[in-house]
Amino acid sequence: MKAEEKMKEDYKYGFVTDIESEDFPKGVNEEIVRLLSTRKNEPEWLLEFRLKGLRQWQKMEHPKWQYCEVPPIDFQALTYYAKPKTKKTVDSLEEIDPELLETFEKLGIPLTEQKRLMGVAVDAVFDSVSVGTTHQEDLEKVGVIFCSISEAVQKYPDLVKKYLGTVIPAADNYYAALNCAVFSDGSFVYIPPGVTCPLDLSTYFRINAKDTGQFERTLIIADKGSYVNYLEGCTAPQRDENQLHAAIVELITLDDAEIKYSTVQNWFAGDKAGKGGIFNFVTKRGHCIGKNSKISWTQVEAGSAITWKYPSCVLLGENSVGSFYSVALTNHFMQADTGTKMIHVGKNTRSTIISKGISAEKSNNVYRGLVKIMPSATGARNYSQCDSMLIGSECGAHTFPTIDVRNDSAVVEHEATTSKISADQIFYLRSRGYTQEKAVSLIVNGFCKDVFKTLPLEFSVEAVKLIEMKLENSVG
Amino acid sequence: MLEVKNLSAQVEGSEILKGINLTVKAGEVHAIMGPNGSGKSTLAKVIAGHPAYEVTGGSVSFDVNRKPVDLLELDPDVRAKEGVFLGFQYPVEIPGVTNVDFLREAFNEVCAHQGLDKLDDAQFKSLVREKLKLLDMDERFLERDVNAGFSGGEKKKNEILQMAILNPRLALLDETDSGLDIDALRIVSKGVNAIKSRFNAIVLVTHYQRLLDLIVPDYVHVLYKGRIIKSGDKSLALELEKKGYDWLIAEAEEKH
Fold first, then answer.
1. Which of A314, B135, B217, B219 could form a disulfide with A343 if both were Cys (CB 3.0 to 4.6 A apart)?
2. In this model, does residue B16 exceed pLDDT 80?
3. Is pLDDT of B212 > 80?
4. Total Cβ atoms within 10 A of residue B192
5. H or E stretch at B256
6. What is the pLDDT of residues A77-121, one digit of tens each?
7. Quick check: B77 and A431 CB within 8 A?
8. Does the pLDDT value for residue A133 go beyond 70?
9. Whose CA is closest to A229, among A209, A210, A257?
């Protein structure tokens, strides 16, 4: 196989769609933010929200505490808004540029209505804008709102205004502030009281344009007694330059509501020499506001040059439950600094953390976690398990767990292991007919089982395949 | 079917095998005996292709479709697919992988290589059930993670179960009897005897006559310091049981 073909096989989503995007000046400043807001025809309060974010960001410095090397980013050289040029606003999926539809088809995300058969509603975000949300009618029947956040701002301003930025305010961190200023689009979900969402909802993010940052924002509100299963997938073309993805995801559950949020992240990770790749700097957090409410994060992080994210839960309501299940796989020169925060505020709140980090080749994999039990959180419980697996001898695995308990009645457990795939394990499998690659993949899949089993079936199949594909060229 | 000629091998610079000659034909049972550290396990591992051992001389040929093939040229998984099986002295644990998934994949790999049809799920399950019965094993065994938390006896039974399912032409059983109580030894031996046929061969690495009472060898070889110093029939093992190795070692050292 030619080297070039091999490269393509390494990352099969590395193609570029030849589609014109609407011009937008580079850089970030008040003028740009105002222009963005005007283009999107936003109400005054949202412009204020953006400007507040911008002013906050301008006061801040790039954080230094992460255990990965982030090369300096020239924020003024980026374009903050890249919209695929379309002849007019899109009213239905039939009007979407066929080139775009084809891109999503190639990615395995058909947006046409045949997708209905699969029982998943998809919101597809291409560069900075949402290009199409499927199954809107089916969802409307039960009162579920699933649309792009731009559309929600126009159609449901009260809901958006009430919750936007309440979970992750601009001042939370550097990239959250930047996102508040320049977020372009994203998904919005509202599940009305007592409704179990009849379909799994899904957002598919695709970065295409060059020198573009993707700053989307997802806001999901599960009203009393409701339930939703949400899936998120990501890919990007293979480019030599690094690209920035700084998203925000905010989840809110009211009394007895539950949100399950699953991510399979496969942004372009850079090539074997460490060139190019996405900087995935994402802030994800959920507020379990209501009693007995639940938020569960499952992530399979297998892409990006640098991943820097901590899907977290603030457990406010009594008996609320937070979980975090994570598999982070790094190879080549990838770096991942990921983990979670579980903040226990309400009584009898419970949280579970299962983190599996796998590092291969020259990559670096960090688990960073905080379990905080506030004085009010009587009877709180946490169980954390952080396992690391090393493949080869040039990679690194690090764990930085912080446990802060301010209530004596809390029970907090933490278990951690580090293992290396042993030569004996591999030989054992090979002597049973497994190739070297299959042997490693079997061992790794076994290691990740506790996390994979929390994924919806089709995602779990995809995750297994993804891990296999990533490892294929990492084990000699 | 197996022809080992003047085989030498080393691990981390120290030479363990120093010119082994061994011929094994289909339908035969060979026992490899000898004091600790004589190279018995190494011989089995080298034939199976353990990467930690470096072959420094000699050859190993194995008949594939009635033609001799240089086994040392093949990757360990290809050797397995061609019908070489190593029963481990210390079977390895694979957490998170169920026994049945592990077995199914191994079985399919071997079938695909040998051009045999894959079995569907029901057919495979019924094959496994039949083999479980042979080894007096509970079906719940299948849903447990590979060797994880198994007792010594269960691990060894699991090795023979794998052998029964993969149906190798050459089985190298490395101290399969160690760590077994009398009942387990009897069951394991019964299993091996049931698998034994005129189409396959078995090489037993063992310290004890008690295994050879149950799986009767056609040939017994005594290994000492990396060489076969004596070969004979089953009576040699009985003699060793009585007299130990010293007399043979003295004989061998006199020769050198």
1. A314
2. yes
3. yes
4. 23
5. none
6. 888 887 666 544 444 555 556 666 666 666 555 555 444 444 556
7. yes
8. no
9. A257
* Over residues A301-312, mean pLDDT: 91
pLDDT of residue A24: 79
Q: What is the pLDDT of residues B50-106, one digit of tens each?
A: 999 999 999 999 999 889 999 999 999 999 999 999 999 999 999 999 999 999 999
Task: Work out the average pLDDT over B230-251.
Answer: 91
pTM of the model: 0.84
Judge whether B170 is closer than 8 Å to chain A, CB to CB.
no
Helix (H, G, I), strand (E, B) or coil at B67: strand
Q: Say which residue, B164 or B255, is predicted with more confidence.
A: B164
Cross-chain Cβ contact B96/A424 below 8 Å: no
The DSSP-derived string for A391-424 is: ESSS-EEEEEEEEEE--TT-EEEEEEEEEE--HH
Q: In whole angstroms, give the CA distance from residue B134 to residue B196.
A: 13
Q: Do the beta carbons of residue A133 and residue A148 sit within 8 Å?
A: yes
The mean pLDDT of chain A is: 85
**A304 vs A192: which has the higher pLDDT:** A192
**Helical ranges in A71-135 per DSSP H:** 98-106
Q: Chain B: nearest CA to A424, how far in angstroms?
A: 7
Say yes or no for a CB contact (<8 Å) between B105 and A422.
no
Cβ proximity of A326 and A338 under 8 Å: yes
Of A78, A108, A94, the residue nearest A13 (C-alpha): A108
A63 DSSP 8-state letter = -
| CA–CA min distance A327, chain B (Å) | 14
A positions 285-324 inside 8 Å of B (CB): none
User: Do the Cβ atoms of B158 and B165 come closer than 8 Å?
Assistant: no
* Nearest-neighbour CA in chain B from A448: distance (Å): 8
Q: What is the pLDDT of residue A3?
A: 42
How wide is the angle at C-alpha B205 spanned by C-alphas B201 and B209, nearest 5°? 105
* R_g of chain B, CA atoms, integer Å: 18
Largest Cα separation within chain B, whole Å, is 61
| B91 neighbourhood in chain A, CB within 8 Å | 428
- Separation between Cα atoms, residue A324 and residue A456, nearest integer Å: 15
Return the pLDDT at A117.
40
The answer to whether B245 contacts chain A (CB < 8 Å) is no
Q: Which of B50, B80, B113 sits opposite A432 (nearest CB)?
A: B80
Look at residue A80 and give its three-state secondary structure.
coil
Mean pLDDT, to the nearest integer, of A15-25?
Answer: 69
Q: Which of B52, B77, B145 sits opposite A433 (nearest CB)?
A: B77
Return the residue in B11, B50, B94 with the most chain A beta carbons within 10 A, the one to mutate for interface testing. Answer: B94
Instruction: Classify strands A227-235 and A258-265 as parallel, antiparallel or unpaired.
Output: parallel
Q: Which domains does chain B have, with CATH numbers?
A: 2-255 (3.40.50.300)
Interface of B with A in 106-135 (CB under 8 A): 106, 109-110, 113
Answer yes or no: is pLDDT of A237 > 50.
yes
Q: Which among A445, A438, A443, A439 is positioned nearest to A462, based on CA atoms?
A: A445
Residue B153 C-beta-side C-alpha neighbours within 13 Å: 13
Q: Give the pLDDT of residue A276.
A: 84
For testing the chain B interface, which of A428, A436, A449, A475 should be mutated: the one with the most B CBs within 10 Å?
A428
Contact between B52 and A434 using a beta-carbon 8 Å cutoff: no
Q: Which residue has 């290009």 as its token pair?
A: A131
